[in-house]
Write a structure and sequence with these properties.
The structure is a homodimer. Chain A has 15 helices and eleven strands. Chain A is an alpha/beta fold and about 500 residues long.
Chain lengths: ~500, ~500
């Protein structure tokens, strides 16, 4: 970045408005160029552990430093250590986006620096939150029984949902009396599929449920929770004197983006008075497409649902929405109003601090409002459709190529696949169990090598997971700047590297 | 904001770099002007419940809208509903700051939009986090046994600390077996002062401890926890077969900023094997001043400590630091690594997702790095000293004026005081208990009226709390742009309004 501005902090007070303006322009220029050229950076940072830290002074500066120096160091020391989630070939985990209007919304929210804990500490933040979350509710086709509240991450949204589920159990007074040392409260049981996100397990640990009281229900061959197994598990637990209290359905699991049969789970939950929480953090966004809306079938009977527009709705991180049909229960799980936060507006306003863990709350609604308005619902739909089209394309390429294998259905924008080097088949005795096991291990290793080689190029970033014990590569499309050209390049990269690797099968 | 840029979203993809640049400049201009003129806005938003929401369309826009329109609405519809935490006469709750370098750091972090869950998903974010939190540790004079981890809020930091405290209890296997339905786990007991923050109670509810198992220890006449009462409570609980596991000391309570005697609490906690957590969210910042460092005396023996640079260290919200002396215990409370997040760097790197609830983590370290370097440690010290000097000034004015009364010591930048209209004394029989009670109620009401009148002017924003059942006004200084002139203006406002109100004592 070029130097041009009043460089130093004044003796007291803030940076001068002139300096802020000059440096602000420079950063806007830098970001505009950065986003334009994101693909010229290596996706995955090409540094070794400690490379960044060892270039930074071990002690803080006593004297003020010039902002020029700081920005120079940002470019020289920080940027080489950044893994570029903005790179259009970032296709690992779930790809995310920071589009222009979202970044600008984030900028304004950083500048306003309000705390939306109470309505009166920023009425616009509370009311805009209510309005935009209702917009999103309508876009998803959820009933007006659902109210939304903004959280930072799905980890927190699901924790709050499970806390509400616990609070909804009648007669146990867990809020006041806790869970420990009580004769009258049996172990609480939580039901999820084997494919549920780790955040659910973390929440169960925090809430004092315990990992051993999470029943991980088996999935079918498309990685969807089996309702018959859910019923059986609940019956078994009830017979054993345990207390089933909550089930979590996932709409778009992390590994394969499978969709649990919510419509079949809902009556089971109702019958046994279980809270039904839906984790639609990633795939829920797709429900704004009429052709995908069936993924939320049954969700009208859910008690809560989480969706993360920071994943696949082009909103900068962090921005997670918790919808709940029983706001009074969510409130009863959390509300604590100390003397210094008493208000006089009463029931006319929603003080959002009452509905979650954090007292401090950013002005998150602003960036989402910018994103929805700037792209429009139809613009968002076009972009999601394109991502799904690209993923289907990639799945077809995998299906059509003999030495690749697709490992799961592709309902959205994520493809699980693996390389199956044909040459390997010759090295093992396929008639013996042991031979087949060793072949599978060799294929796993080959895929790990392939992933490592592709990611090391800095031209693409894919991730991996395990399915039925086997290593599987994952490619996901979610970045607003990803085009078919990027996808073709990644496919070419994969093929280039399989050709190199296969030349030395022994090394595999 | 003036219009000048390419207004509409393209069919597909992101805002063009040209549009981003033009709108970015406009927002930088707007923010520079806004911060310069922050005091020309009413501090407390002058709107009624529903005023903002009813001006917004009930349904989301199907078609893209121009960014010009969005920014116009931001100014016209949103800004009037903003309570301006940037206003230099915002002196309610704890005042906070968004200084120029912090806003610019936030802008870059919004643009990079990384997720620092794993080291490799942004090595620079993880390593900069490690470095700047170690800088802060040194600034506070904490021993190298403490490691830091970035959280969003103290609500979450303290929740994580208490989760670690629970995980540290030997033999109970709470992570796996939970708390419910067990014969071998007695009720867990948590010790805090009557003045502790509500976030501690919320954490105890979440963790399944229960509100009734929080022992609220009495305070002395300076609102500090009484160690003798702590000892007695622990002994009583142990005798009753309960399980004391954690005590929380507050360095800077929310109501009066009193400092619990950590050095006296630490040996008690050691003796009874309690985890000692220190909530220094607000006042911890003052420990970077050598003359204030004694407030952390005893903290070297604490197990964890939370400090929020977003409160009183000029860092935009959100930015909370949890220091812990037993990172392996914190990790054991949280770490869950699913297949899709397995890594190969092993023990060489810190994957911060292992140390907290949230899997998703913003690049928070960047703004703090900007703030420390731009102001320098000495610059931060100058600003904190000035805030303390201003608060002492205000306390003196209160002390010197006959119809005002100071209600607590002023160790930092917060003053608790109340108006005592002398005229009221004549209206009640001071020789009777009932007369004195009615006088106190009348004084409470007078202070509520005074607060309301002052806040309604939009020229200042103060808050209130209760101390020993009495309504008390709170003035706090924490905004980087607050000067003595602003403080004088607030004092004048208070006096103007007492004079108006006192003319009609009957109305009180």
């Amino acid at each position: 970045m070029k130097k041009d501005a009043d460089p130093m902090a004044p003796e007291i007070g803030d940076m001068s408005p002139e300096a802020f303006r000059a440096y602000g322009y420079r950063l806007i220029d830098w970001i505009a160029d950065y986003l334009k050229n994101a693909e010229s950076y290596p996706v995955l940072a090409q540094v070794r552990p400690g490379d960044i830290a060892r270039q930074l002074p071990p002690q803080p500066p006593l004297q003020a430093e010039s902002f020029d120096e700081i920005l120079e160091d940002f470019e020289k020391l920080i940027i080489p250590g950044v893994t570029h989630w903005n790179h259009p070939a970032f296709m690992a985990y779930f790809a995310i986006s920071a589009p222009g209007p979202g970044i600008l919304g984030e900028l304004l929210s950083g500048a306003l620096n309000i705390n939306a804990m109470l309505w009166k500490t920023c009425p616009a933040a509370s009311e805009l939150e209510e309005v935009v979350l209702d917009w999103l509710r309508q876009m998803l086709g959820l009933s007006g029984e659902f109210s939304g509240v903004l959280m930072d991450t799905a980890s927190i949204s699901s924790l709050c949902a499970l806390a509400a589920a616990r609070a909804a159990i009648p007669n146990y007074r867990i809020r006041t009396d806790g869970l420990a040392g009580r004769q009258d409260v049996p172990p609480l049981r939580l039901y999820v599929s084997e494919q549920a996100h780790s955040s659910i397990e973390k929440a169960a640990i925090l809430l004092g449920i315990g990992q051993n009281h999470i029943r991980k229900i088996a999935v079918d061959d498309a990685y969807r929770l089996r309702p018959d197994m859910l019923s059986a598990a609940i019956a078994e637990d009830r017979a054993a004197g345990l207390k089933p209290f909550c089930a979590v359905a996932t709409v778009g699991t992390t590994a394969t983006t499978s969709v649990d049969p919510v419509a079949a789970m809902a009556p089971i939950c109702r019958e046994h008075q279980l809270w039904l929480h839906v984790d639609a953090a990633y795939a829920g966004s797709a429900a704004i497409l009429p052709e995908c809306r069936p993924i939320l079938d049954g969700c009208e009977a859910a008690d809560s649902l989480v969706l993360n527009p920071h994943k696949w709705m082009f909103t900068p991180f962090d921005f997670s929405v918790l919808y709940c049909r029983h706001m009074e229960i969510l409130r009863s799980a959390f509300s604590l109003v100390p003397d210094y936060l008493q208000t006089t507006e009463g029931e006319h306003v929603r003080n959002y601090m009452d509905y979650g863990i954090q007292l401090g709350r950013r002005f998150r609604a602003l960036k989402f409002w910018f994103v929805i308005r700037y792209f429009g619902v139809e613009g968002l739909q076009r972009r999601l459709r394109e991502h799904i089209r690209l993923a289907q394309h990639f799945a077809k390429w995998v299906d059509q190529q003999a030495d690749f294998e697709r490992m799961a259905p592709v309902p959205f924008s994520t493809v699980c696949f693996r390389w199956v080097p044909k040459a390997l088949g010759d090295s093992f005795d396929m008639d013996s169990e042991k031979g087949r096991t060793r072949l599978n291990e060799a294929i796993d290793l080959a895929n790990e090598k392939l992933l490592d080689e592709v990611n090391k190029t800095g031209q693409a970033y894919l991730s991996s997971t395990k399915l039925q014990g086997r290593t599987v590569l994952r490619l996901t499309i979610g970045n607003i700047r990803t085009t078919e050209a990027h996808l073709r390049r990644v496919w070419a990269l994969l093929n280039e590297h399989t050709q190199t690797l296969v030349q030395d099968v022994d090394r595999l």
